[in-house]
Amino acid sequence: MNPRPIVKLSHFLNSGNKLFQRGISTARQSYGAEGGRNSGRIFADYAIFKGKAALSVAPVLPSFSKTDSGYTKVDRRGVIMLTFRPAIGERKYDSEKKQLFALSVTEVGSFISLGPGDSCEFFHDPLMQSRDAGQVRKSLSIKPHTDGYFISLTVANNILKTNERLTVPVSTAEFAVMRAAFSFALPHIMGWAHSTNQVLDDNNVGRDSLKVHPQASSSSSEWDR
Amino acid sequence: MNPRPIVKLSHFLNSGNKLFQRGISTARQSYGAEGGRNSGRIFADYAIFKGKAALSVAPVLPSFSKTDSGYTKVDRRGVIMLTFRPAIGERKYDSEKKQLFALSVTEVGSFISLGPGDSCEFFHDPLMQSRDAGQVRKSLSIKPHTDGYFISLTVANNILKTNERLTVPVSTAEFAVMRAAFSFALPHIMGWAHSTNQVLDDNNVGRDSLKVHPQASSSSSEWDR
Amino acid sequence: MNPRPIVKLSHFLNSGNKLFQRGISTARQSYGAEGGRNSGRIFADYAIFKGKAALSVAPVLPSFSKTDSGYTKVDRRGVIMLTFRPAIGERKYDSEKKQLFALSVTEVGSFISLGPGDSCEFFHDPLMQSRDAGQVRKSLSIKPHTDGYFISLTVANNILKTNERLTVPVSTAEFAVMRAAFSFALPHIMGWAHSTNQVLDDNNVGRDSLKVHPQASSSSSEWDR
Amino acid sequence: MNPRPIVKLSHFLNSGNKLFQRGISTARQSYGAEGGRNSGRIFADYAIFKGKAALSVAPVLPSFSKTDSGYTKVDRRGVIMLTFRPAIGERKYDSEKKQLFALSVTEVGSFISLGPGDSCEFFHDPLMQSRDAGQVRKSLSIKPHTDGYFISLTVANNILKTNERLTVPVSTAEFAVMRAAFSFALPHIMGWAHSTNQVLDDNNVGRDSLKVHPQASSSSSEWDR
């Protein structure tokens, strides 16, 4: 009566697989800074304003859920949300034409491990789960230049017959800020900052009267080196 | 009457020695995400799903105990728990056949300091403290490939006459996530995040009326350089 | 009636652009350790005392504001405040002649990514927004020496006809402290430490009954690699 | 009546100068894990047990004081306390003969920036402020070996006519743990973790109604690049 616990992939909640991440950029759009349901949260974008476009980046925390067993688990991982806005005049940017790209945990891993001269590219299909899968393709490319990187977002929309490309030159210093900030944010969007931040209380602090730990009573040849 | 304070090893609570760590992988199995006694905790595994097996990793916090003197100390250090599950079909993984490996604080130190092209291997005897010591041998190996590392767990069980090997190819980006997450988790599983996170209150904030600190009244030749 | 959302630069609150940072060093002077309105805050300067001058560094947190929509956002980014004091005798420094320089988020990015042998220089105009723009020019230069860096602040004041230069030799160890401390402080002065430090409560923890996530039900060729 | 604010060195509370640190190793001995007045604190040593001696390391937080102006400042910086205990038998260590060495903030900076093959040495005079200055000399040396470092503490006591040397071979993995843990602890022993960890409340969150920031209304040639 107790069936063998075959685990289907869909039961895993925290996938590092690109498969999972593909559908995220759309799903997460409602989490952006403009989302109306985000009252109570703190917004702290890091924004880079350049001649042709502006790029702002901000962490989006994971969502959690309580299980029937009473503990809390990550329901959906967080992301680093990249928002591009095209320039439409001197120091004016068009929010209506903004384009989002949600870096998954693993893509953030790629980003922060980019060496000097390295480049990388990520592909997302925001409509992946729908019948319009493949109609919209987003790609984010990071390419080195003399002092820093070009970060470009291309959105090819077969339905609207549009193809947009927004590029922001990011200086070495700005990239260093991103790398440091993304590294800081990584354990938060993974949920590890939450899972390690348990308060000490009577439940997890036992009483101890110098008991001898069983694992300390054996001998080992490693000892003498 | 007050005997010389000969300290036996078994009195040290936080050993960095491999000796101590050997017996941990079994002892800590009850701490895994499926443990029934973990209500109230937050679970946030980072999971990597590949063709032959899945690997998920998560920090396990240290346990603490109160001494008779009234202060709190680490009773047992935390670990990074690695859980391997074999694939049994397309995107299906068998939790019944899962294998655990608990990386100790020092093994996490090895992991995060792996350079490109480096490899390492850890050996655990989960039955070390019992009369069946040596009957089960677990080894975790991390070996470089073109884009990342192969992480393999081998479990040789002389009692059941079994020898299992589960290998998960981990991409450079996924490894970067692990390295960053393990580095973040390290002070938490050591207990340093707890010991440094003391709240300021009247007990540790004194009153000061511009008193001259004694150690500042001396002269030094270092001063003039 | 709902006009196109043309975003002027002045509406962006968190600019990474040097433009924004130029006017900051003056504006932030009231935030220094001597500011009278800072009751309740904790001050923890890292100070380096050398023969000709002393340099102390400390983070200044961002300020936040509540919007009409009820959420909180960064109003003004934080900085790392550098304070130079000239020596006026053996181990005596003149606070009246102190000079401040507020490193912006992006300048901190430059600082922490300085390689061995690298140098950099930042320029601020503390009167930029006033009719005296250009009359006072501050520049901070960081130049390598045998064991560490020279950090120099030059303040050229056309109004007072003064030109001061304060230089502090910083050892490799002291620079390592700064780099580590600035890296730690960076997410705090950006506001990311605040935005990621959300408490879990009933608003952001849902109830979950093993629902299948839509993005997990698709197939992918990436799976089999 | 308001005299020129001549600042004597003794008024600076957070010196990065070695001068200050010299006298610390004694002064801080009462802060060690055995200190009776430390009730309420959490202890989490990282200990390395080797054939001839054991080394355990732990952070000691700074002390704070309230000024008359009502704010809190670092009164005395924290340290990383190193405790050496000689072996007196198989896996037995003599706490009575333990020797302490308190790494200052700047010495921690040296430690964490040690490259492969680098070595360093620190000198402390625990009796520096007393009439017995120079009678006891402690030196801590860190020297590379094939797999890691030798960490040696030498204590030369002219009064007792003793000269002790305790050496612990530290593996690369153990050193990586120390480096990561010390890097984590650095902002805490400096007090920066406290000064940046301010709670947001009505005092530091203003109300904002889309006010134009004055520093955003200027033009800049940097804009167009």
TrEMBL record, chains A, B, C, D:
Record GO cellular component, one term: DNA repair complex
Family annotation (InterPro entries): ssDNA-bd_transcriptional_reg, Whirly
Coiled-coil blocks: none
BP terms from Gene Ontology: defense response; DNA repair; regulation of DNA-templated transcription
Region of interest (Disordered), ranges: 206-225
Single GO molecular function: single-stranded DNA binding
Listed SUPFAM superfamilies: ssDNA-binding transcriptional regulator domain
The keyword Ribosomal protein belongs to this UniProt entry's keyword annotation: no
Keyword terms of this UniProt record: Transit peptide
Bias type Polar residues, positions: 215-225
Family classification: Belongs to the Whirly family.
Protein name, entry field: Uncharacterized protein
